[in-house]
Amino acid sequence: MQAMLDKIISILIPASQEELLKRFKRVSYEFKADGTLVTEADLAMQERMHKELAGFWPEYDFLGEEMTSEQQQAVLTDSDKGIWCLDPLDGTSNYAMGIPHFAPSLAFIERGQVKLGVVYDPLREECFSAIRGRGAWLNGEPLSLRDRAYPAQPAIAIIDFKRLPTSLAASLASNPPYKSQRSFGSVALDWCWMAAGRSHVYLHGRQNIWDFAAGQLVFEEAGGYSSTLEGEPVFSYQLEPRSAVAALNKPLFDNWRKCLQQQ
């Protein structure tokens, strides 16, 4: 897995710099059928990564955000092989509006489990990576949330209010159980920033498999705790969007879940 990770990083970084950075603030955007944005950069990045991954690992299938839902479902349904799961540009709305917060996200899934993940922030030159059972890293340096002291009450929460149940969003907004709240617009980087200890708790109502597969593994391998709002594991081998509740350690996680249940 380490050799695979090294090769992926060597592919993803130059692709991000050449396909994303060179187009940043220079492309227009269009709306897809679901109302989300897409740019030339999304499509160019997906095409390049698909081609390069197939060149090194032709035996594996490929699932990209910019494929049709029918194509995506066929990959998940029919493949008994490993799968590359790519979001070519997580944070497209940020990218399209010139907001400097976006990243491609790539996960390798085998037998219904994420085995490896990479998220690269090309503007900050931060490469987050993880191998299941081996750990997580930021630019090659280990990420670990263990053995840190954290407050019992969260100071900073990353929350996407837009996709939460209306009653929960309204309750959190009017009676927040944290000191300050952020929403950055990139699920992949949300998970990675949590893995780096840049927030205490996290909440998101609906994220797709290509959004979170890599980042959630980085967070998990760094030692963080997460579940859906219903208490299930966040990752599920399906296209159906998943909610996410997360915190940096077990006491914070238990307290955060309790707070949400009381809202």
Task: Describe what this molecule looks like in 3D.
The chain has helices spanning 2-20, 40-56, 69-78, 92-96, 166-174, 187-195, 209-222, 250-262; strands spanning 29-31, 37-39, 61-64, 83-90, 103-110, 113-121, 126-131, 135-138, 141-143, 156-160, 180-182, 201-207, 225-227, 242-247. The chain has 263 residues and is α+β, with helices and mostly antiparallel strands. It has two domains: 2-143, Fructose-1,6-Bisphosphatase, subunit A, domain 1 (Fructose-1,6-Bisphosphatase, Chain A, domain 1, 2-Layer Sandwich), CATH 3.30.540; 156-262, D-Maltodextrin-Binding Protein, domain 2 (3-Layer(aba) Sandwich), CATH 3.40.190. Strands 3-4-5-6-7-8-9 form a seven-stranded mixed sheet, sandwiched between helices. A five-stranded mixed sheet has the order 11-10-12-14-13, with helices on both faces. The longest helix has 19 residues, at 2-20. The radius of gyration is 18 Å and the shape is globular. The model has no long low-confidence stretch (mean pLDDT 94).
